[in-house]
Amino acid sequence: MLEEIGPFLEVLLGGLMAGVLYALVALGFVLIFKASGVFNFAQGAMVLFAALTLVRLMEVLPFVLAFAASCAIMVALAFAIERLVLRPLVNQEGLILFMATIGITFFIDGFGQTLWGSDIYTLELGLPKSPWIILDPPLPGGILVSPVDVFAAVTAGALVAGLAVFFNRTKVGRALRAVADDHQAAQSVGIPLNTIWLIVWSVAGVVALVAGMAWGTKLGVQFSLALVALKAIPVIILGGLTSIPGAIVGGLIIGAGEKLAEVYIGPAFGGGIENWFAYVVALLFLLFRPQGLFGERIIERV
What we know:
The protein has a single domain (2-288), classed as ABC transporter involved in vitamin B12 uptake, BtuC, CATH 1.10.3470. The protein is mainly α. It has a two-stranded antiparallel ribbon. α2 (43-57) runs antiparallel to α3 and α5 runs antiparallel to α8 (193-219). It has helices at 2-36, 43-57, 63-86, 94-116, 147-169, 171-181, 183-188, 193-219, 228-239, 244-264, 273-288; strands at 132-134, 143-145. The relative contact order is 0.19. It contains eleven helices and two strands; from the N terminus they run ααααββααααααα.
């Protein structure tokens, strides 16, 4: 019995760790949507740009200084986006803002390639390369755990805790929720919409930097990192577009589900189930519970 439990737990744990990485990207989507009510298509490009910025700065600076400089650059990018793109579109329809984020995506991709180059870079954070072996005994051979995945899990937990306190306990956090509910009403009571958008895009940029660190350490910093955002979309559909804890729970469910499905169901389908499992789950939720597990049900009265 223990010989069968060990491989199952290893696959499950690996899936949960992958889910945490998905959740890190999904957090950026949720932050922008909570503050502006618009789906930020550019989040994947922000993850890539942040990772590229960090890895190239680490070529000439120590990690701490490179990380601080990368945070400053992401805040500057948020300032430019707010001043040049979002401010002229205040009170416009959500579809217009969504289309604007598509334009931001292509700009960030091109600007990042021009500024930092398009090569594949190795991001070293000083984490151990060899996997850790846990639960040996009682399980024969134990379970392999990646230090990178553990780093991502701890980082994601700290981010969620900090963001939960920020949104629920601070004046700025409450203002962010008010802006998300109604832009014009928030402005009418003196909440500066442009400042709120600048803050939330800056926070989303820092979250993108942390996600880029985790994914860049795992996969290398390359332009395919932007595609990670595609896997984060089912995560936020499952967890809810407005829920920060939902992004984490959704990531864990998607990560564990796709790994277990690939190993235990995939052979019956000829393999490859991991590539489309998350999107099938997202489609089912859109059909039967479009607000997600923790999202707010939208009721429109006419």
